[in-house]
């Protein structure tokens, strides 16, 4: 949902073999999407989480554009460059939030109803937020570097510019790290509650694929012949 934001000199910056459980329907854990209806509901909730997060990101972007646009013309020195950089971040984040939100809305009209597609989408979503969190740490590190550079009297360029840009990077990187962390936690909790428990009950052996369902104290286990 977000790519590298380049501004300033240093801101470059299985298929799964099906296994059919023979346990009665009322013995299945309610949180597991064992049917296509449950999987569709799971996918719909995932896109809802995405839409909610992208709306927050879009609101943050609009705030940066409005505040930065007003303050840039009314400030000087490092504050001027701080708001100038925030405008750039706001424009990029708004474009990414808008396109991502529209994509999530399209996906919500036809939520995935099969387990394999949901697993791939879930892992892709979680990995994306983790990757973005790594970028956020890089933004923070770059912000610290620019602040240190602004204190170096022999550094090229304007110290006020480096200070303003560094402060902006610390603000934006800090917000985005919090945003990506919360989004990852929300999606991971959603998967852990409704999808991952089902996957943990699948085991594959040399001659069978088995799906285990808890039925009280003992475990009930059914197996189907493995597909060559």
If you had to describe this structure to a student in words, what would you say it looks like?
- This is DUF5683 domain-containing protein.
- Keywords: Signal.
- The chain has helices at 36-72, 77-109, 115-150, 159-194, 196-200, and strands at residues 202-204, 208-214, 219-225.
- It has 228 residues and is mainly α.
- The protein has two domains: 33-194, no CATH class; 203-228, no CATH class.
- A three-stranded antiparallel β-sheet has the order 1-2-3.
- Strand 1 (202-204) and strand 2 (208-214) form a beta hairpin.
- Helix 1 packs antiparallel against helix 4 and helix 2 (77-109) runs parallel beside helix 4 (159-194).
- The two termini are 39 Å apart.
Question: Topology, pairings included?
Answer:
Elements: H1 36-72, H2 77-109, H3 115-150, H4 159-194, H5 196-200, E1 202-204, E2 208-214, E3 219-225
């Amino acid at each position: 949902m977000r790519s590298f934001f380049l501004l300033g000199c240093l801101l470059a910056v299985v298929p799964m073999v099906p296994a059919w459980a023979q346990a009665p329907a009322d013995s299945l854990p309610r949180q597991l999407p064992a049917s296509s209806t449950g999987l569709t509901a799971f996918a719909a909730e995932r896109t809802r989480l995405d839409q909610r997060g992208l709306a927050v990101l879009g609101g943050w972007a609009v705030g940066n554009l409005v505040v930065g646009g007003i303050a840039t013309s009314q400030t000087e020195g490092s504050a001027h460059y701080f708001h100038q950089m925030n405008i750039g971040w706001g424009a990029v984040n708004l474009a990414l939030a808008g396109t991502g939100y529209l994509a999530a809305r399209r996906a919500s009209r036809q939520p995935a109803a099969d387990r394999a597609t949901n697993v791939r989408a879930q892992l892709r979503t979680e990995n994306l937020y983790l990757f973005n969190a790594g970028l956020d740490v890089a933004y923070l590190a770059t912000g610290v570097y620019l602040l240190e550079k602004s204190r170096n009297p022999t550094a090229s360029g304007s110290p006020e510019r480096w200070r303003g840009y560094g402060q902006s990077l610390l603000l934006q990187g800090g917000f985005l790290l919090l945003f990506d962390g919360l989004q990852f936690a929300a999606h991971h909790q959603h998967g852990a509650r409704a999808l991952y428990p089902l996957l943990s009950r699948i085991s594959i052996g040399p001659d069978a694929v088995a799906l285990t369902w808890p039925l009280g104290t003992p475990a009930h286990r059914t197996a189907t012949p493995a597909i060559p």
